[in-house]
Amino acid sequence: MSNYDWDAHNRRTVLEGRQILERTSASIARSNQIAIESENTGTEILSELDTQREALIRTSERLDNANDGLFESRKILSFLNNFYLQLLMLKQFQIIRRMSSVDIASLRIKYKEKRDIFREESIDKKDPIDLFGKWLNEATKTEEILEPNAMCLATVSKDGFPSNRYVLLKSADQRGFTFFTNYASRKADDMEVNPNVAVAFYWLPLRRSVRIEGSVTKISHEESKSYFHSRPRASQIGALASPQSQLIPSREHIDIIEEEIKQKVGDSGVVPMPNWGGYLITPRAIEFWQGQTNRLHDRIRFRKSDEEVNDKLVHRGENGWVYERLAP
């Protein structure tokens, strides 16, 4: 008989079988885990795909609604555009008809009530410069009045032809009323040969107006220079660029000159003062007008005079002034 150790052989066989069984069990366990994870992943993927599908359906529905809304919006916009064009045509027709049929003589606005009558007794100081300052102050505080210091200046040429334009009052005191302009302008030419001028202020929201008559003289060069350089820089350059009242070939001509000046003086250089300066109106008469009901307006005029007064028609004021009431 052979000496082969069958017991050892059997033990090895059993051990190998056990090892194979353990590896197989482990492999089965891993496969089972993979299957479970795959199932979970698949479930999550399916769930996500289902969610995305629902989102796509909702998006599609919103797009359909948006398209419907866009279509409706386009119809509304088209309707509004046509409606606006019709209104525009109607407005133009109304304007044309109004221009052809308006009765200018019937145009009126309502003035102050009788309780607001402008009486001499209401003037605290019988001095027109003081009263003008109070009225100007009220006009300045009235928001509807954009430029309370705007005044219409009337001059007369050497040939006797009058002309007027708006300028801005820059000071008012016992000396008179000061404004500034180009010394080569038409109004300057007029005032050179005829210094008699008139100015008018009109403050519609207050139903008030002031008329001033007097003569002009140039203020000093130093005063003019001081004021010129106190103006905004753009206004200084504009005054230098414009040969006021002279013929020019085009708007671009002025723009080119303005740009050349800007390049020459730079951002901080001193802008040379042109032939430009101030005038002082020395008043000889100042009339205060206030609109009243039924066109019975109030007019009180101050005049420089040393005449005898009777306090019936003419009254003695202050600082060499007399005052009187004029019929409206």
From TrEMBL:
UniProt superkingdom: Eukaryota
Cofactor: FMN
Location(s), subcellular: Membrane
Main localization of the protein described in the UniProt heading: membrane
UniProt pathway annotation: Cofactor metabolism; pyridoxal 5'-phosphate salvage; pyridoxal 5'-phosphate from pyridoxamine 5'-phosphate: step 1/1; Cofactor metabolism; pyridoxal 5'-phosphate salvage; pyridoxal 5'-phosphate from pyridoxine 5'-phosphate: step 1/1
GO cellular component, one term: membrane
Residue ranges annotated for the Pyridoxamine 5'-phosphate oxidase N-terminal domain, each copy included: 143-262
E.C. no: 1.4.3.5
Pyridoxine 5'-phosphate oxidase dimerisation C-terminal domain boundaries: 276-328
Presence of keyword Membrane: yes
Single GO BP term: pyridoxine biosynthetic process
Membrane topology: Single-pass type IV membrane protein
Keyword line: Coiled coil, Flavoprotein, FMN, Membrane, Oxidoreductase, Protein transport, Pyridoxine biosynthesis, Transmembrane, Transmembrane helix, Transport
GO molecular function: FMN binding; pyridoxamine phosphate oxidase activity
Biological role: Catalyzes the oxidation of either pyridoxine 5'-phosphate (PNP) or pyridoxamine 5'-phosphate (PMP) into pyridoxal 5'-phosphate (PLP).
PANTHER family: PYRIDOXINE-5'-PHOSPHATE OXIDASE, PYRIDOXINE-5-PHOSPHATE OXIDASE
Oligomeric and partner information: Homodimer.
Protein name: pyridoxal 5'-phosphate synthase
Lineage: Eukaryota, Metazoa, Ecdysozoa, Arthropoda, Hexapoda
